[in-house]
Structure formats: C-alpha cells, structure tokens
Amino acid sequence: MKENDSGSESAYWQTNIRLMLKLLCVWFTVSFVCGILLVDVLNQIQIGGYKLGFWFAQQGSMYSFVIIVFYYAKRMAALDREYNVDE
Amino acid sequence: MDLQTMTYIVVGITFTVYIGIAIWARAGTTTEFYVAGGGIHPVANGMATAADWMSAASFISMAGLIAFYGYGGSVFLMGWTGGYVLLAMCLAPYLRKFGKFTVPEFIGDRFYSRTARIVAVICLIVASVTYVIGQMKGIGVAFSRFLEVDYTTGLLSGMGIVFIYAVLGGMKGITYTQIVQYCVLIFAYTIPAIFISLNLTGNPIPQLGLGSTMIGSETYLLDKLDQVVMELGFSEYTTQARLSTLNMFVYTMSLMIGTAGLPHVIIRFFTVPKVRDARTSAGWALVFITILYTTAPAVAAMARLNLIDTINQPESAETLVYAERPDWFKKWETTGLLKFEDKNGDGRIQYTSDKTTNEMVKVDRDIMVLANPEIAQLPNWVIALVAAGGLAAALSTAAGLLLAISSAISHDLLKGVFMPDISEKSELLASRIAMAGAIMFAGYLGLNPPDFAAGTVALAFGLAASSIFPVLMMGIFSKNVTKEGAIAGMIAGIGVTLLYVFQHKGIMFVASTSFLGDMPSNWFLGIEPNAFGAIGAVVNFVVAFGVSRVTKAPPKEIQDLVEHIRVPSGAGSAQAH
Q1: CB atoms A63 and B238 under 8 Å
Q2: Per-domain residue ranges for chain B?
Q3: Superfamily name with CATH number, domain B3-566
Q4: B12: Cβ–Cβ under 8 A, 6 or more apart, which residues?
Q5: What is the pTM of this model?
Q6: How far from B112 is each of B16, B117, B165, B558, B572, CA to CA, in Å?
Q7: What is the value of ipTM here, to two decimals?
Q8: CA nearest A86 in B: which residue?
Q9: CB B211 to CB A80 under 8 A?
Q10: Which of B84, B226, B303, B514 is deepest in the core (most CB within 10 A)?
C-alpha cells in the first residue's frame, strides 16, 4: 500500500460514499419512482406511442442504469488519482 | 429445406463452434481456467458476463411473461438490470480488492468465522438449486419443441445433454466460448424482433417500433394492443399492474438485490486485472444485457398482438377455424404446452379472458419467444436461429450453476469442513456425484415447476437477496457487524423467505405440501412469494444489526481489513485458495 495517512483515506471514502448515495438516488428515481410509484401520473404524458410512465418502466430506467454505472466508474477513476490510491 | 433439418443444422453448427473454441482455448494454462477473464479487456469480460447471466429465464421466458403481464412484466426488466448498478457501486470493486475467489470465502474472512462460511455456502446452494429448476423448465420447453415431443420427454433429453455439457466443465470458464455464445444469443433474439418490428411498424429498431404507429395506419402499436386485449376482456396492456403497486415495488427490489447477491455473477468481478476494471466491467456487462432487455418489451407486445390477430383474423368477421390452424399451433400442441378445447362445438377458436368460454385452455407463457417467429411467419433460418439461441442460453447458465453447486459441495463443504484430508481424486468424484444429484433433483422438480421459468428464477433471486446481499453490504460498509450478527442475519433472512415460499408453493416446491395454498388472499400484504426476498433482506439487516449491538465488537484486524478493501491501491492479482 502506498503511504497514505488515514485522514486522506477517510476523506476519499467520504467522497466515494457521497457520490454513491447521489447516484443511488437517481437509480431509485428512474426505476421505483418513475416506473412504479408515479407511473399513473407520468402515463398522462404521451411521447410518440409511449405513455411516459410505461416508457420509464420498460425502456428509460434501463438506459439510465447504463449511464449511472459508467458515470460512477469515470468519477471514481478521477477520485482514485486525486487521492493517490489508484493502482 | 424443411424447418426441422434447418434447426438441427444451425444448432449443430453453434455447438461445434462452442466445443471447438473450448478445445482450442484449453491449450492455455490451467490458471486460465480458474481466473476466467484475468487479463481480458473489460469489454470482452462484460460480454462474457452477459452470456453467463442471460439464461433461459431472460431468453425464453421473460418476453412471454411480459406479453401476458403487460406493464406488470416490467419488474423483470428493471429488476434484472438495476441490480448491476448496485453491483458496480456497492460490491464489485471492494470484493475485487479483497482478492479471493468465492463469496463464502469473503464472508468467512470478514466475519472471522468458519460457521459464517458454511451458512453462506448452504444459502448459495439453496438459491442455485432453485435457479437450476427454472432453467430446467426452459430446457424442457426448448427441447420438447426442438425434438417435437411432449414436455416430459423434452425435459429428460435436455437433462442428459446438460449433464454431458456440465461434465465437459472447462467450457464454462473460458471467456471466448461465452463471447461466441453471447453473439449467437443476441443475434437470435434481435433478428426476429427486427423482422417483426418492420412488418408491423416499418421501423427496423424494435425499441422505436414499439413506440411507433402501425404500418398503413395512424394508430400507435401500443394503443392498438390496448384496444385489442380489452375487447377480449383482458386488462389494458400498458397499465396492467402486477397485483399491486407494493407488490411490484418489492418484486423489483428483490430481483435487484438478488442480482447483486448471486455468486456466479459476482465471481466474474473477482478476477478482473484491477479494481477500476471491476467498475467498468459491470458497466459493459450491463450494456450487453440492456440490448436484449430493451428489445424484450417490443418482442412481448408484438407477439401478443400477432397471437391475437392469428386467432381472431381481423380481416374476416369470423375467428380461426381449428382445422385450418397453422403449423406452429400443431407443433406446440404436441408438446402439451398449448391446448385447445372446442367448448361451444363450432370448430372455431374463441380466445377470451372469460374462463367459461375461452377455448385456448392452455397457452404456456414460456412458449411465446420460441413460437414468435413462426407466428409472424418469418423465414425458416430465423426460426432455427431462435432455437439455437434458446438452447445456448439455457445450457450455458445451467451448466455454470451446476459447476458452482458441485464445487460448493465438494470444495467448500467436504474439503473445507468435513473431510480436510480428502484426496484430489475423491474430491473430483464427489463433485461429479453432486452434479448428477443436482441435475436429477432439479430435473424432477422441473417436471412440475413452481412457476414459469422466469418466475422460478425469481424465487432463486429472492433467496439470494435475503441471505447473501445483506451480509456483503454490511461486511463492506460497516465495521461493527459481528460474526454472531452476520450468522443470525443470514439464517433469519433466508429462513423467513423459505418459510414464506414453502408455505405457499409447497415444501421444496412440491405443490401438495403447501399448507397455505398459493393464493393472493393468503399473502402477507398481498406480496407474492416470488417477491418476498426483499422482505427477507430487511429481516436480515435488522437481526444482524440487533445481534451485533449485544455481542463483542469485531477484532482490530477485521476492522483494518475493512479499511483495507475500501481503497483500490495495493490490490495485486486474485489469489488461489
């Protein structure tokens, strides 16, 4: 392991957790909120042949998941370098 | 060339390729066998993971269930993709840093207890066996159609092939075979979807076709489908919820956290070269899975519409005459998975939601994807390709799971715990016996599966969700959870879930032993057994934290271990155990 004082490691961990929680909020919103809890409300809006709530449940949530995972990977790679904990 | 010959040829070619690659790639080192994906680019690893992941449940069963559940089928779509977000952010990088090969090993080390490891192994075996039952249903459907025999004969032949396939073994660990399997699978799934989407909407991209207007009309496909199903007395396709909002919420959650708790997926991220790669590998796997999963809703809606149109013949005033039924109808009748009963004796087929007048007395949901290209009258080679894809999906996942089960029994339980000085030869023999036993057990239960393939697989996810996912999360994100807490949590979580599932679905899914009956009025808050894993997980968390508060805190070195896995630096390569 590289020389890191525990203060910087704990700051790294805190930043990671904050990023993770933010992205988990997005994850929850696109699937559970838009696809299930508020589906009837969003279904009032129509985009092309799709009712919006139905679209989130069967299309939109999955596209969002892909974006979330890659965004996290990119931000974490930068964070690893910033805190000098990358391999 | 007739369809049967064509199917044999396409299936034969794909299998030759898998086996050929396996033999070619085996020339490498034995380490390569264990360290699947070591030194392999995250994109390739992601593709292989996707092939590993997508089983009979995804390929054969899921779109069929969506076709009949409509909007309610979304639980499978969101559940089986959303879990990768949890994997990528909450588990994969840290388990990779830990640097061992199996999930029970992590649990045993983090919770400084051999008992914890044994409990984890048992939980994994229970979940994996249930998973295999679901695969067996898919295999039975695919083989019965492929060989044109009844379901039982199809299942028995399939079991034999799975056994041979799994004993060849090494095939599973070789990433290149899986990459080819992914390609076969995704072509087999998307090509018919493109054809059908073109036929119905003129749009070649199924994801867009589903939101387009019908060809030569101003009506949207989904509106048309809503209208057609409602005329027959079914619920509106795009709004028909699965039981209740609460049930859908819990069901989706259960599948998501089950995804993040199943060993054969997690294991793939243990062996990527770097912690950083664990994060991107999960992303690529999700990309390749999403290609199939966003196509599935289009397949589902279009299959339902085509099925209804075939029977109701919108261009004529009368419904289809039974004697003039198409070929695919007759072939599926042979398998016993499609049944017609002329209730009013007019020789025509009436298909309605009303049980007393509906004459399509059995339409097994799991036949829809395989029957879909025939219903849409696509060329024979497309139909043959779908058969090859379905077999690839079912066999690869079943074989992989059987290997996981047999190595858990022979390596983790026998060698690790009960007979430490067992010879390598006896260990191998034990693993073969365990595998044969698991196939027969799962095959027997597959004769009368607790649900459609995807539903049965959902039960397996519930079991993984209630036992493994919570302890992994607590092991990484809390330093205070003790061994007593983890053990009590796992037992309570899987215990509650199994109790709930067994009392409604029967003990070990033998329906006659179900003492509460599988009916909504007996369900806790209206939550179906398939969805109960999320509740089990909550129980697991609560019990584990509760017990940890009153037991002695974990020793200093365990707290250091937790600190250690949280930062990527110094990971090194995965070590053999």
Answers
A1: no
A2: 3-566
A3: Sodium/glucose cotransporter (1.20.1730.10)
A4: none
A5: 0.91
A6: 46, 9, 37, 8, 22
A7: 0.93
A8: B569
A9: no
A10: B84
